[in-house]
Write a structure and sequence with these properties.
With about 210 residues, the protein is α+β, with helices and mostly antiparallel strands. Helices cover about 20% and strands about 30% of the residues. The strands form two sheets. A five-stranded antiparallel sheet has the order 1-3-2-4-5, sandwiched between helices. It has a two-stranded antiparallel ribbon with strand order 6-7.
């Protein structure tokens, strides 16, 4: 079904892929440009505490990310955005932007997504494998162990046919399959698979949605 010019596209890279909680007209695999998936957000509540933070996913600048794109009918645009904002914009650590995506069928669209705000205190920055595994191992919050979050996320990505070498490396380390002296997974595209590492060089920051700073 062809999409209308005022339909809304939302790009999902984490739990929104398998738990969107909104109605949609179309769902396709897609690649978003200018940002990559990363464990780059400190979790102080759901998967950690302020004293022992865990880590959750965000989109950080540079490269690209494979995820899912949802098309929402224009008539449901406002209500859907309101619901997603309530879910994603709780603490201010995520910023809402519009970014270019290429859909699996070749179409190119602009999609709403939520990226890490580097100025926020919960932004963890670029972490090596040692730091990632330490934080994931220690994190436990209102929703349970950080390790369970990472493992569940990785399994869902695999079910969707999406590889994430960084998450896989963290799990192998915590499962004892990698020695503690192993090289961090950031020498070749920040630990992305070959497909994730496309356009690894930093891209200009995507424009915010109209009306947002």
């Amino acid at each position: 079904m062809p999409d209308a010019a005022d339909d809304l596209w939302i790009f999902a890279y984490g739990s929104l892929m398998w738990r969107p909680d909104f109605a949609f007209e179309e769902r396709l695999r897609a690649r978003l440009f200018g940002f990559h998936r990363a464990l780059c957000i400190y979790s102080h509540h759901y998967r950690g505490t302020p004293d022992q933070p865990g880590l959750v996913l965000g989109l950080d600048r540079g490269g690209s990310c494979v995820g899912l794109c949802f098309r929402i009918a224009a008539s449901a645009r406002a209500a859907t955005l309101e619901a997603v904002r309530r879910r994603e914009l709780i603490t201010g650590v995520y910023a809402e932007i519009a970014a270019p995506v290429r859909l699996a069928d070749g179409r190119r669209r602009s999609a709403v997504t939520y990226v890490a705000s580097r100025s926020h205190p919960q932004y963890a920055g670029v972490l090596g494998l040692e730091a990632l595994t330490r934080l994931v191992a220690q994190g436990r919050g209102l929703s349970g162990a950080n390790l369970d979050y990472v493992r569940n996320t990785h399994e869902h990505l695999i079910d969707l046919g999406i590889e994430d070498d960084r998450l896989a490396g963290v799990l192998r380390r915590l499962d004892g399959e990698l020695p503690s002296s192993a090289e961090p997974l950031d020498r070749h595209g920040g630990g992305f698979s070959a497909t994730e590492a496309e356009s690894r060089h930093a891209a200009p920051e995507a424009p915010t949605l109209e009306g947002r700073k």
